[in-house]
Amino acid sequence: MTTTDWDLDRLLPAYDFRSRYTRRISAPPAVVWDALYAVTADELPVTRLLMKVRSAGRTRMKGSLADIAPMARLTRTEGREAVHGKVAQYWHLRPREAPIRSGDPVAFTEFAEPGWAKAAMSFQVTPDGDGTLLAAETRVHATDARSRRVFAAYWLLIRVGGAGFIRLELLGSIARRAEAAPSR
Predict the structure, then answer these.
(1) How many Cβ atoms are within 10 Å of 180's Cβ, its own excluded?
(2) pTM higher than 0.90 for the full model?
(3) Domain assignment of residue 21, yes or no
(4) pLDDT tens-digit series, residues 72-121
(5) Does 67 fall in a domain?
(6) Has residue 161 been placed in a domain?
(7) Is residue 76 packed enough to be buried (19+ CB in 10 Å), middle (13-18) or exposed (0-12)?
(8) Shortest CA distance to 109 belongs to which of 11, 18, 15, 4?
(9) 73 within some domain
(10) In Å, how far are 9, 21, 88 from 147, measured between CA atoms?
(11) 55: CB partners within 8 A, 6+ apart
């Protein structure tokens, strides 16, 4: 498998900003995949706190990862990769969503109207010997130079303010679940 086999590479091949966090998990890929979708907001206290701060108290996270994801699912290749994405002006206190159909991978890919940022987050499951490598990759592409400049300031703020902590907490929670699963 090459990196070009990922749906993320097809949906957002060019990007201005990127973060990637990985974790090797001592469990088979199928168990890791199940754990990815079984993790709940209750297992993510840092994430809940940071999202509450980001939303000025408007967000109360409850339920599974699928229920609390802030972006719509664009693709899901069972057991291998799930990509969520959204086009918005993230730099506003309440991000403004672009006028496209949420969760439509074609609309997401083709959207190019100036003034927006296209963000995609991918969870990738790769067999790794007797375990699994789980990756959480985020990519953002601004649709014009001004949006790129404005988003750059926002990106710095969220990178310093906890986006990495969220990814690490999520990967850790998935690992704990997968490694404790009885079917291992």
Answers:
(1) 11
(2) no
(3) no
(4) 899 999 999 999 999 999 988 888 999 998 899 999 999 999 999 999 99
(5) yes
(6) yes
(7) middle
(8) 11
(9) yes
(10) 22, 25, 10
(11) none
Strand 81-89 versus strand 96-97 pairing type: antiparallel
Q: What single letter denotes the amino acid at residue 44?
A: L
Q: What pLDDT score does 141 carry? A: 98
Q: In which band, very low, low, confident or very high, does the pLDDT at 183 lie, cut at 50, 70 and 90? A: low
β-strand partners of 119: 86, 140
Print the domain residue range for 141: 27-178
Q: In this predicted model, what pLDDT tens digit does every residue of 118-143 receive, in sequence order?
A: 999 999 999 999 999 999 999 999 99
Residue type, 64: S
Contact 141, 14 (CB under 8 A): yes
Largest CA distance in the chain: 51
Two structure tokens written together for 168: 């690490």
Total domains present in the chain: 1
